[in-house]
Write a structure and sequence with these properties.
Layout (H helix, E strand, L loop, with lengths): L7 H27 L8 E6 L6 H8 L2 H8 L5 E6 L3 H9 L5 E5 H11 L6 E5 L6 E4 L16 E3 L6 H14 L11 E3 L2 H10 L6 E3 L4 H8 L4 E5 H5 L6 E5 L1 H6 L1 H20 L1 H12 L5 H8 L14 H9 L25
Parallel strand pairs: 1-2, 1-3, 6-7, 6-8
Antiparallel strand pairs: 3-10, 4-10, 5-8, 5-9
Helix pairs in contact: 2-11, 2-12, 3-11, 4-5, 7-8, 11-12, 12-13
């Protein structure tokens, strides 16, 4: 077969075209190599809920501490804030990839840690502090949980999942035995803290109780003369405990080491800020949350000796053991370190 002979000008054009294609391929390779991924360093999406227990995040947001700590590590961090209600919705948002850092109770953390064990491996990032949670009732006949009947309705952030729901189950197990741990679940109702507080204060709904958090519980006690404390979470856990925490997937932590470390450092700085500047912290809470809570009452909550703003979790292991014993989680933690990431900043946890 005779070899095809190309004219010089055609051959030159083909060589030029080949050079252009090769150059484009190199450019495309460089672009793909440098293109940021969906979870590239420098982006963090944080979901919080309601109340003073999220004051660390409020301060970090207002003072731009995450951005500050990022710059110190050579990363420009873009922070996105989302407010949700209830551990169930928080966990759904985390698993669907809509958020990177989840803020909820230890109960929801243990639920999602158990559910993702060996897969996404969701674990705790830090605590948001120790705060007593009150079960409040407006029913004068209810002095203890033993007095609750089917006519009572207790509001909490998420039925069976929230830390309040789990603490109520622990209290029921102590009162009636572990086999009856879920005895009070049927009279609980999912309701965001602000709505539950309004119901308790006005007394015009079927809600007669609220297992809440500060400052809503203090507003209820001040706003309704019939409101009284039935149960203190510290009595259930045997002392101060971290009821509300932050958690994330293992992938986000591994893919964003500088952003992650900057976030934890910002939390620690926020805790120090609140302890040193309670007045300024109160103003930040009012500003960030657009809250109309009485400032004097808010300061009382922040300065409450039973409230501790710290990032190392405390006294969480007992709840994890209880949830395993009653079959609420399938994986048994050997210690609190099993469901928290191993970080020096929270090494003194429990």
């Amino acid at each position: 077969m005779r070899e095809l002979t190309l004219f010089p000008d055609v051959k030159h054009r083909l060589q030029t075209l080949a050079t252009i294609v090769a150059a484009l391929a190199i450019c495309l390779a460089i672009c793909l190599a440098t293109m940021p991924s969906a979870h590239a360093e420098g982006r963090i999406r944080v979901a919080e809920q309601f109340g003073v227990v999220y004051l660390l995040l409020n301060v970090a947001q207002d003072q731009k501490l995450i951005e500050k700590q990022g710059k110190a590590r050579g990363v420009d961090i873009r922070v996105e804030w989302t407010k949700l209600s209830g551990g169930a919705s928080i966990n759904d948002a985390l698993l669907s990839g809509d958020i990177d850092i989840a803020g909820a109770g230890v109960g929801p953390l243990l639920t999602i840690w158990d559910r993702t064990h060996g897969r996404q491996n969701v674990k705790g990032v830090a605590s948001l502090g120790n705060f007593p949670y009150f079960l409040i009732s407006t029913n004068p006949k209810v002095k203890t949980i033993a007095d609750l009947t089917d006519k009572d309705r207790i509001a909490l952030p998420a039925v069976t999942v929230s830390v309040q729901a789990r603490l109520l189950q622990m209290a029921a197990a102590k009162q009636w035995g572990q086999a009856d741990f879920s005895r009070l679940d049927k009279i609980t109702q999912t309701l965001p803290h602000p709505d539950a507080a309004a119901a308790i204060i006005t007394g015009k709904t079927e809600i007669s109780g609220h297992f809440g958090s500060p400052p809503f519980q203090e507003q209820e006690l001040a706003g309704n003369s019939n409101a009284h404390i039935v149960l203190n979470s510290y009595d259930i856990t045997g002392g101060p405990s971290s009821a509300t925490v932050l958690y994330a997937t293992e992938k986000y932590r591994n893919d964003n080491p500088k952003t992650y470390v900057a976030f934890v450092a910002a939390l620690a700085e926020a805790a120090q800020f609140i302890s040193a500047n309670p007045e300024a912290a109160a103003d930040i809470y009012l500003r960030v949350n657009k809250s109309n809570i009485d400032r004097k009452l808010l300061l009382q909550v922040i300065r409450n000796p039973q409230s501790e703003f710290k990032i190392a979790p405390q006294n969480t292991f007992g709840l994890s053991q209880f949830l395993y014993e009653v079959g609420a989680i399938k994986n048994k933690p050997a210690s609190w370190r099993d469901y928290f990431f191993d970080d020096a900043a929270i090494a003194q946890g429990s």
